[in-house]
Amino acid sequence: MNNIKIVKRTLIVFLTTLILFSCVPTKTAIREADKTLPDAYKNQVEDSINSANVKWKDFFSDTNLVTLIDIAIANNQELKIMLQRVEMSKNEIKARTGEYLPFVSINAGAEIEKVGEFTRNGAVEKNLSIREDEKFPEPLSNFSAGLSASWELDIWKKLRNGKKIAVLEYLASVEGKNFMVTQLVSEIASTYYELMALDNQLLIIEQNLELQTNALRMVKLQKEAARVTQLAVRRFEAELLKNQSNKFIVSQQIVETENLLNFLVGRYPQQIIRSSDTFISKSMDVIKSGIPSDLLANRTDIKKAELELAAAKLNVSVAKANFYPSIGVRAGLGLEAFKPKFLINTPESLTYNLIGDVVAPLINRNAIKAEYSTANNRQLAAIFEYEKTILNAYIEVQNQLSNAQNLKESYRLKEGQVEALTESIGLSIQLFKSARAEYTEVLLTQREALDSKIEIIETKRNQLLANVKLYQALGGGWD
Length: 479
Known about the structure:
Residues 394-467 form a coiled coil. This protein is an alpha+beta fold.
């Protein structure tokens, strides 16, 4: 008869479990992320060499710039904040690891209780005695000490997957930190080149002011000789005043750019050591772009998105495991007695328990279903984010490759323009002295020459920035 009861109970448990499993929602498999990239960049030949593999200390030849980047990586506050987030992600791994291991606790307690005599417990205790010569104590005290343990059997790998998710999120945070280093290196280099360009603009303005001062002196002499009118003098004075005003504007931009660099480096404002006199003569290094598929290995933001996608996939498994029964085991072992002196009397004071339970959601599982659907939606969003990051990386590289090539041609033409206009300044003055040119031609020539020199400095700056941005777009700068 007992065997029949056991079989019935087993069948009931089996059928209940079967029903629960049949209620687990199923979804069609979410598509895999598309990693395909073009075989080569537009108008570029396939190349096995990739400049992204060059360490930033070797990529930048300016020792002053390398020193600034070194200090920034050690002191930049934003980077320090990111490093703390990495450590927090690391701590999460420890927390998730502990969830699927047994929890063991030590406990000790003492209590006292007095029940009413006309209650069931009171009536029983009234007639109880420990021994013939020792009555049951009133009020009743109780002392205990022992160990307790609890453990959820992770048969559906929900807890282990939770730990794997924490590991992936930690690795993603590391890649996020690397991406920040790449951006920091790029921003410092770009600001450094911007500062050098401003120094050269200021130098050109000062040289032009000297030239315009001499021209104004010449025009005043011409007026005294009645060869020009006061109008010419005032026009030359106005041009001189305009450039004197521009000098202060550029000086303020230098101060702000220096302070920005100091902020990125993580220190209070101070003089930035730089070699601005070599700015125009800086050679443009040829950057090897490799092949587009290299981006998957070199771009830290792509690797971060890939790790986040893997974590999102595991989150779906964790959400699905919530539909399954959870099996737990609890156990306790200790000593318990109403007087401390009896605690050491074993086995009389020995107490223990062992409990196993199975808990599964049965009715009103809407919250679990919603979380499962949300996990699937997050996984799909992570796929789109990953694909978007790859597409963005490719377009960034393509843009900078084109930018570098166009700026190279632009700089070559501007060199000829500057040379021609610089020569025309002397010619216009000579012609003006011999009354073969109007003063307006001298003014216009000086203005155009100044503009062309400022433009070629800006073009050189843009060339250097394009190289930095291309190096960053390829995935270099974090190692």
